[in-house]
Amino acid sequence: MVVPSPTSMIRTKKTKAVGIPTIDLSMERSELSELVVKACEEYGFFKVVNHGIPKEVISRLENEGTEFFSKNSTEKLQAGTSTPFGYGCKNIGPNGDKGDLEYLLLHTNPNSISERSKTIAKDHPIKFSCIVTDYIEAVKELACEILELAAEGLWVPDKSSLSKVIKDVHSDSVLRINHYPPVKKLSKDNLDPSKFQNNNNTIGFGEHSDPQILTILRSNNVGGLQISTQHGLWIPVHPDPNEFYVMVGDSLQVLTNGRFVSVRHRVLTNTTKPRMSMMYFAAPPLNWWISPLSKMVTAHNPSLYKPFTWAQYKQAAYALRLGDSRLDQFKLQKQEDNTHYHHDT
């Protein structure tokens, strides 16, 4: 069943404390698929419990992340600057976006992980590689299960039509580990209002949606994540280090012809405790075409998007700023929408 999970009561003019769907994966399957669809439609975001991933698979990767980010700057930089894979600090993408964080970005290809492990964990590369691979396999299986439930709930004839692209050996999925050090409050003389939200917390990672199909997120017990409703209200997400959160990405919005909506989200920093999160971004192969599933298109509900490959969408997405709406340029009604917009203004 879906139950509301507690959220922080911090509120601003555009922040609201409400329940976020929690889905128990041990439920009866037919009901479960309906609830997954409902959560993807209403929020594009939900929490999963009874996911079956062993705690030690999670804790081992968290320990590796903690060990790496505790190193000095010189040691971390030896892991290779993120171009795009490896270690990164402050920079988010190639277009000038910044955040109060550092991170590791890894492609999920086993050979790529093995190579990166040699610079990230010089004293135990094989151990690091095995821990990362174990985690990726576990969350990939979880992502595939959720996508198959979604396909069943949408009455798509082939329930593997979404998950099979994640399982493809050429999948472009990535794993990202973000570390947000505590950011102390500044004096009133040094405040930049644009960078602060509730209780003077800074924006650690700015508002955006994920371009991939699905994101499986797990964080430590430090809060900061917020999601935006379709009405523009920000909902604080209560951290739960034993469970996972699922986010609909832009590609899944297209695949469902807009029935699922990719969730916009951001992260606020903490003034006293470091936050660490681990995201598996489930993506198709680069040459895979993304367009609405045939079940999602009818005479009364025509396709909203023109087809594009994942490589084309990546190129378009990363040419824009973090907060830009990336899907607009792929909408078939773009010209019509723009006309209405100009009339409104």
TrEMBL record:
Supply the name of the protein.
gibberellin 2beta-dioxygenase
Q: Which residues form the Fe2OG dioxygenase domain?
A: 170-284
Its UniProt pathway annotation is: Plant hormone biosynthesis; gibberellin biosynthesis; Hormone biosynthesis
Q: Reaction catalysed?
A: gibberellin A1 + 2-oxoglutarate + O2 = gibberellin A8 + succinate + CO2
**Record InterPro entries:** DIOX_N, IPNS-like_FE2OG_OXY, IPNS-like_sf, Iron_ascorbate_oxido_reductase, Oxoglu/Fe-dep_dioxygenase_dom
Gene3D superfamilies from the entry?
A: B-lactam Antibiotic, Isopenicillin N Synthase, Chain
Instruction: Respond yes or no to whether keyword Metal-binding is given for this record.
Output: yes
Its EC number(s): 1.14.11.13
Q: Which GO terms describe its biological process?
A: gibberellin catabolic process; response to light stimulus
Enzyme type, top EC level = oxidoreductase
Which family does this protein fall into? Belongs to the iron/ascorbate-dependent oxidoreductase family. GA2OX subfamily.
Q: Which UniProt keywords apply?
A: Dioxygenase, Iron, Metal-binding, Oxidoreductase
PROSITE patterns the UniProt entry points to:
FE2OG_OXY
Q: Which GO terms describe its molecular function?
A: gibberellin 2-beta-dioxygenase activity; metal ion binding
